[in-house]
Specification:
This protein has 287 residues and is mainly alpha-helical. It has one domain: MetI-like fold (Orthogonal Bundle). The protein contains 13 helices and 2 strands. It has a two-stranded antiparallel ribbon with strand order 1-2. A hairpin with a 5-residue loop joins strand 1 and strand 2. The radius of gyration is 24 Å and the shape is globular. It starts with 9 loop residues before the first helix and ends with a helix.
């Protein structure tokens, strides 16, 4: 029996594709235009070529901000992925507590990013904040407004609190989708809990973990709102990540050429890193 393919349904999706393409391409074309030109106002532009890209790539300021962003991303991934997976493994699969756990895990994700930064800003104040006073009461000198290590500790702790729920919910969805036949076979074979996790749950969660790590990598590498509200990039430049440095170029110095070139480099770094990670994960799974 021959099947007749009707592709007219694609016309229903075409408006969505056009809208997404318009929203993505127009800003990108504008940024590319500014990245190769110089302007002194009055809407007059002069060709600059690759000058801005060369300045950014040779700048120690860019390298330092890139290093800080990379370290922050690695730290939060190393904490949030295992912690989220561990929480998902302990969550109930059946019963009335399932809904309670899902709602509680979703609450941090519902809070706007600027509110998260404000909450932790108040809570981490060394004099009146609950977290700040508790740490100082233990005899530890803690002041995130003056000490770079304290600022980094507060940022990482805030991000772990805010986004571990996403990893946990994704892993929980993957665990629930595993058929009971696998667990029944493992029970018959007398498999220990670690063996069940190693040979059943973890292989089945590889796709979910890939998505979770990719989402958290992209979001943590582009973090801006929470950091600017909590530390403002300080103390000094200790928490000035690429996103904050980019805004300083564009709005603080109104240096559109450097800001546009840095935006494109920033975009290409995220795109290449995401592609590389996804390719390596899929290749490892095929092997």
């Amino acid at each position: 029996m021959n099947k007749t393919w009707n592709n007219r349904a694609w016309w229903l999706v075409l408006p969505v594709f056009l809208m997404v393409a318009f929203n993505a391409l127009v800003p990108l074309m504008t940024v590319v235009n500014y990245s190769v030109q110089e302007t002194f106002g009055n809407n007059e532009f002069f060709w600059a070529g690759s000058r801005w890209f060369e300045d950014i790539l040779r700048s120690d300021r860019f390298h330092d901000a890139l290093l800080r962003s990379g370290i922050f991303t690695l730290l939060v991934l190393a904490l949030e992925v295992p912690l989220g997976l561990g929480i998902a493994l302990t969550m109930p699969r059946k019963g009335p507590w399932v809904s309670v756990c899902l709602v509680l895990m979703s609450l941090p994700l519902l809070i706007p990013w600027n509110v998260v930064g404000s909450m932790w800003n108040i809570m981490a104040l060394p004099d009146i904040g609950l977290l700040g006073k508790a740490i100082n009461a233990l005899g530890i000198n803690y002041n995130y407004t003056r000490q770079p290590i304290s600022a980094w500790f507060t940022l990482v702790l805030m991000d772990v609190w805010h986004w571990t729920s996403l990893v946990a919910l994704l892993c929980y969805a993957g665990l629930v989708s595993i058929p009971d036949a696998y667990y029944q076979a493992a029970k018959i074979d007398g498999a220990r809990p670690w063996a069940v996790f190693r040979y059943i749950q973890l292989p089945k969660l590889r796709h979910v973990l890939t998505i979770a790590i990719l989402l958290r990598f992209m979001d943590s590498f582009m973090i801006y709102t929470e950091v600017i509200v909590l530390t403002g990039g300080g103390p000094g430049n200790a928490t000035t990540f690429l996103s904050i440095d980019l805004v300083k170029y564009a709005l603080g110095q109104f240096d559109l050429g450097h800001a546009a070139a840095m935006s494109i480099i920033y975009f290409l770094i995220i795109l290449f890193a995401s592609w590389l990670f996804y390719t390596l994960m899929m290749r490892h799974q095929e092997q």
